[in-house]
């Protein structure tokens, strides 16, 4: 029996034919309108009227299936720090289309990869904190809301070497994660107080993958009714409620960190839970005081604080074939896969990528056809398809 431990896989990619202008860092250029235009032209699969762009992840996580939806506002919002980075910043129409696109792609993944023993499926949204300076090490490369859709071969993961458990990107186990290290019981109680019917709370151990032991210590929920819930708009509404609860907790906590005895933030989604479970909880205030004191004394720690809500929220299929939802604060540099204990190292290997590319593109075009048939966008033609 394999020991549960995070895994590290190596994924080849083609050298990206992109010239960064002299005098700019790659991170600075990646957030420019010119780069986003290049992304659509070279790797775009589909675009729709709401501004969502489906594209191939050339610098990806998996050669089995790997794609993303991004809200491409680069031509309409020229300030990179002013672009939407979370679902709560979308319009009602955009949220509706976002959920339908996510449903359609995840259903395709379930149909193509029906055996949880052979493939791990996940989709996940990573918030990009608009308060980070563009030159900050580890800042996400495209500062816009986007959703990842990834399939991993379980055989490849089983054969992969163990990842370093002290890797700072493996942040969801209570080792580096502020909420779980200092506020585990308070955070868990608050998140489990949300009014959910189609998402049922499960224990921390029940949500873990047997192979990696991740996610670790996070509030998690099982989709009651399984895959049928993907077509239920109320399921996606509850998926949003989890995000809203997280945002309330995050904003309330860092308001206390920033200003001693601050009142509860305005425009909360769950004001009663904030008042009852947080604003009279001594553990909550103790943790805020400790963080505040450390910020004053440690400039490195202070520089890493993300004052605006930043998170990773994922939907994944576990070992038993259940659909599980979890959410975690996002920390410096970590990828969506590391929430499940999978560290991805990428390296330039044109031949290795070329060997897997035809089958990968075939699957990406197949899912694009489904989105087109559902009136969720129009195809983009690139040099590769």
Helical amount: 25-40%
Strand count, sense and barrel status of the largest sheet are: 10 strands, antiparallel
Mean pLDDT: 88
The radius of gyration over CA amounts to: 20 Å
Taken from the alpha-carbon principal axes, the silhouette is: globular
| Span of the ends, CA to CA | 43 Å
User: Based on DSSP secondary structure assignment, what is the total number of beta strands?
Assistant: 12
Strand order of the largest sheet: 7-8-10-9-5-6-4-3-2-12
The fraction of residues in strands falls at 15-25%
How many domains? The number is 1
Poorly predicted runs: 172-176
SSE arrangement, N to C = EHHEEEHEEHHHEEHHHHEEEHE
Q: Which helices and strands, and how do they pair?
A:
Elements: E1 7-13, H1 26-30, H2 33-43, E2 44-47, E3 52-56, E4 65-71, H3 92-112, E5 119-126, E6 146-153, H4 154-159, H5 178-182, H6 184-191, E7 199-202, E8 220-223, H7 233-258, H8 271-278, H9 282-297, H10 299-304, E9 311-317, E10 323-329, E11 342-348, H11 350-373, E12 378-379
Parallel strand pairs: 1-11
Antiparallel strand pairs: 2-3, 2-12, 3-4, 4-6, 5-6, 5-9, 7-8, 8-10, 9-10
Account of the protein in words:
With 385 residues, the protein is α+β, with helices and mostly antiparallel strands. It has one domain (7-379). The chain contains 11 helices and 12 strands. The strands form 2 sheets. A 10-stranded antiparallel sheet has the order 7-8-10-9-5-6-4-3-2-12. Mean pLDDT is 88; it is low at 172-176.
